[in-house]
Design a protein that fits this description.
Blueprint (H helix, E strand, L loop, with lengths): L15 H18 L26 E5 L5 E3 L2 E3 L1 H11 L6 E6 L5 H13 L3 E4 L5
Parallel strand pairs: 1-4, 4-5
Antiparallel strand pairs: 1-2, 2-3
Length: 131
């Protein structure tokens, strides 16, 4: 009797488990992307042209030192004083402030002023270097 054995190896691959994993990852990234940055600060970056500066309103300069001291009109202010001053600035026609931190200032001090500007709807421009 000449019975032959089949010794062919099947080279098939089941894609069903791979597609399940891909769909789960897709759903995960779709859900997490909607939660990424809902509370981002709306910061207006300075432009290089000189004509973009507001001409009809006065721009207040807020300086921040490395130790967390705030200065407005060259006078040292506390954070609660800064909140009162920014609320006063917000009553002008085009409220704008320039935030000028010293080099090496911790980010939390800068964000505190940016948060006040956002709360009172004051345009905040972050100036990285003083000319």
């Amino acid at each position: 009797m000449g019975i032959k054995k089949r010794s062919k190896v099947s080279a098939e691959f089941s894609m069903s488990s791979l597609t399940d994993i891909i769909f789960l990852l897709l759903i995960f990234f779709m859900l997490t992307s909607s939660l990424v940055a809902p509370n981002a600060l709306n910061l207006k970056l300075p432009s290089s042209s000189r004509s973009s500066a507001p001409s009809s309103s006065q721009v207040e300069d807020v300086r921040i030192t490395q130790s967390g001291n705030y200065f407005l009109d060259n006078r040292r202010r506390s954070l609660s004083d800064m909140e009162r001053e920014i609320s006063r600035i917000s009553r002008s026609s085009k409220p704008s402030i320039t935030i000028s931190p010293e080099q090496g200032t911790p980010t939390e001090y800068v964000v505190a002023i940016m948060d006040l500007a956002m709360r009172y709807r004051v345009n905040g421009v972050l100036a990285t270097e003083k000319d």
